[in-house]
Each structure stands twice: as structure tokens, then as C-alpha cells.
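Protocol step 4 of 5: obtain the predicted structure for the target chain.
Materials: sequence only (see below). No template structures provided, no constraints applied. The aim of this step is simply to have a reference model before the mutagenesis design in step 5. Sequence pasted as it appears in the construct record:
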Amino acid sequence: MRRTAVALAATTLLLPLTACGAGAGSGSGSGDGSTVTVTVGYQSKTINTVTAGTLLRSLGSFEKQLNALDDGRTYKVDWQDYATGAPITAQMTAGKIDIGSMGDFPLLINAARGKQLGKPTRLVSVTGYNLKGGLNTVVVAPESKLASLKDLKGKKVSTSIGSAADGTLVRALQRAGIDPAEGITKLNQQPAVGASALSSGSADALSQFVAWPGLLAHQGKAKALYDGAQLNLPTFHGVTARQDFAEQRPAVLEAFLKAQAEATDYLVAHPVDAAEKVAKATGLPAEVVYLYNGAHGIATFDPAVKPRLVAALKEDVAILKAAGLTGDVDVDAFVDDRYVKKALGAGYAVRLAAGPPAAASEVWPEGAAKTLSFASPGLLLAHVARNADSVRAAYVPDATTGTLWFADKAVWVADGGQLLPFVAPATAQAYVAGHPGARVITYADALGRAS
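Step 4 output (C-alpha cells):
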């Protein structure tokens, strides 16, 4: 029965969702010849797509690039906001969205649906990525006694089937020796619905993508059970465009990609201000946005289509096939980096070679436009202990995966003179098991020791 429910959910997910989200655009860079409307589908609250959506929109970069074309046409941008990638794909294959952004698993569904319906799409750039998989997290209620993935056997777990978070859940359960189809009851829910289910107790755990796990932890409504970076498999979000649109209006697509690069550079140069802009546009707390998009956040932003990400995308196909969400997907045919290479010119090679910044501990002081970085989590704790009333947020990287997390929500371990943070209890316990004398302590104890 569980397999039947998943199959039905998958079928529902893949149906055209023409009534979802904002009003449908006309697509295909439509217009009367002198006026052209470009329709962009984005996910404001999936904040690892902000350089192709929320931040890009707030900066007005795309409109400026379109005006710079100076080709005798007037361009208008129709921005359409959605909760997940599925409705963006539905609108794209219906010819009503020209450019969209979504996570890696939805991108594969986008490719499959486009080919199936004779409306092919192409992956043209990347937004945010994490080389270990830290963009997805499994969380449980704050009072939950569940301590590891093994404890999920027989439990109800909410996720969005076909999403990157679902992919993380499936892989993590398999590694834990649990059959994803039979070992749990999977609830196919939108992120907000899943968050409510977790709070009400109708779901025992929630596996979701950014920014939901961090948001719920920040609000005190959840705690981490599993850090997606434990998989050590890249996850990313990217930009997809309809092939006919790209071929008919390559200058417009290149203008979008130039604007995306500008938004990326702005985020890197002004991470605090960028977080504030995204927070204002989405209603998310800026502290949560910074957790993912900050100077040392969980995500690294770069429009370059890196071979390692493409390789990871190919590995994702098997997960979607097993769930009945797609057949084979020709990833090489789907990936088309010609437009971003042309848009960025010589700078593309530099971006392609760049990697994520080194992990660091950060404090965001109240009223400050910049954060403070510390060489170790222990030094950060010492600062927080001395300046508790003036700290807006404090972030520390997991001692084993490097995933950034809120210092007051982390699981802390004392090992001799070291104070080590972990996102999830299982990784903390694994460290303790391998280091005689180390033990888990409370955050208050960690602060006391640091001071």
C-alpha cells in the first residue's frame, strides 16, 4: 500500500499544474514585436536559487541587462513565485515560463518531462551548491526521542516526493539499512504542510531543502536528526530554460545569465546586505538566510556548470527511476553551458575553477553590516559568552562535515580542551565513540567552558 501511495503521489507530481502559483505568463519571450515579455519562474523561499530569483529580482539586474540590449524592443519581466520546482516545470512544458530555477532532482524531472512532451529544456547555469550534500536536512520535533536515522523505521516522515530532500532521505535510509519504500510511511507534502505536520505530531520527521530545516531550528520548532552532508554527495540548484526560447532569443538568455553573475558577485561581496534583501522579500528571518547564503554558509554560489555537479546529477537519475518519477535521462544532452560561457566570456574559466570558501565560525553582531570570523568554535563561544546581549546570531561548522549551523542549536562535544560542534546527535556520538574521554555537553556548559 505504501508503494501504491508513492506511485500515485509521483503521478500527481508529474501532471501539469497550470493553476499553481502566480498567473500564467505568455512564455516564449512573447510580445507584439516591439514589446517582449520574458517569464521567469523562481522559488523565493528556496533561497539557494536567489541569484536567479529573489536577489536578482530585488537588484533589478535582469531588467538592466535587457535594457542594455538596445535592440529597438521594450522588455518586460514577469516574475512568478512558486513553492517547489514541479509547477515551474509544468508551466515550462506548457510554454508559459521561459526560464526557471530549481534543485537537482526537480531539474531531472524537468528534463524528462520536457523530452516526454516534445518541449525540451536545458540546464544553462548553477545557482547554489554544496559539494557534500548539506543543503538538505532531516529534522524532528524539539522534544523527540529519535536520535538517528535508524530510529525512523516504522515512523511517518514528511517530504516532497521528487525533490532533492526526498533524494537525500532515500539515500540516507538505504545507508541506514532501511527500505525507503517499506521501512517508513512517506508523506508527500509541500514544505509548509510538512512543517505543520511535524509541529502537530502527525509526522515524526521532516526531510526538506533550504530554508525549511534552518528556519524550523531557528524558531525552536525542530532539531536536526540527519545532516545531508553525511552522504558526501554534491547537491545543487540550477537554472533551466526552454530550448525553443534559448534558440529564438539567445541574447535574452545571455542577458539573464549576465544578470545572474552580477547577483552572485553582489551576494559574495555583500553577504549580510544580500541576506537582508532576501529576508525582506521573503519574510524569512535574515539570520536563517545567512546560515545558507552567508560568507561561509552552507551554499556556495557560482553560475559555472562544474563537471562534479554534472556527475552528481547523473547519479541522481537512478533514485528517480526507482521511485517511478522518470525513466532514463540523458544528462549530457540536458546540460548546455554554451550560453553561460558566452555571457561570461573569459571570466567563466575563473568561476569554473573556483571552489567553496573554507569553513569558519561567524558571529553576526546586533546592528552590524558585517560579521566577525573566528579561527575556532571555541573562540566564537568565548566571544558569545562575553557579548551575549549584542549577538544577533552565531554560526559554527560541523566538526566532521563542515555544514554550518546555529551555535545554540548545535550538539556540542568536549574533547580535552576542544569544544566541537555537530549538526546532528548521531555524528556527535560517532565522534565520541572514536575519541576516548570526549563527551556530549550542553550549549550552556560549552559557553561556560569557553569563558
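Step 4 remarks: The chain is about 40% helix and 20% strand. The longest strand covers residues 121-130.
Proceed to step 5.
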